[in-house]
Specification:
Its main location: nucleus. With about 130 residues, this protein is mainly α. It has six helices and no strands.
């Protein structure tokens, strides 16, 4: 039984192999027309976004739309800015907790009100006796 191809002759995929330095450089310099350039925010725009972030770190769609129109920035960029800013805030908060000597797990336990008796026990028991006092 002959093996049939999944594609007809017209549908066969064409692979292009880059085999010379000139072709590689030409391919690397080729700009992708679908890719947008990075949006650079001005200091004034950042100040406005920061002041709004201090008021509400999770603004609703209406607030984000108003900001987008006022700052002449696409809505999606406003949305991503707030998302990135919340991530930055969390990262700063977590790193400051670690600098204070608490691990993230210990901070979580403190927030929940649970106690980790292993870290509280002042005596150094052998591992087999540690849990059976």
């Amino acid at each position: 039984m002959p093996i049939r191809s999944r594609f007809t002759k017209d549908e066969k995929k064409v692979m292009k192999f880059i085999d010379s330095t000139e072709e590689i450089i030409k391919h690397m310099n080729k700009s992708d027309s679908n890719k947008r350039s990075r949006l650079k925010l001005s200091g004034e725009q950042i100040d406005i976004l920061e002041s709004n972030f201090k008021i509400d770190s999770h603004p609703n769609s209406t607030t984000k739309s108003l900001l987008a129109n006022a700052l002449s920035i696409p809505f999606k960029n406003i949305q991503i800015w707030f998302q990135n800013r919340r991530a930055k805030e969390k990262m700063v908060r977590d790193s400051s907790k670690r600098r204070n000597g608490n691990t993230i797990a210990e901070e979580r336990d403190q927030e929940r009100g649970t106690v980790n008796y292993q870290t509280m026990c002042p005596f150094d028991f052998p591992p087999q006796e540690r849990y059976f006092l």
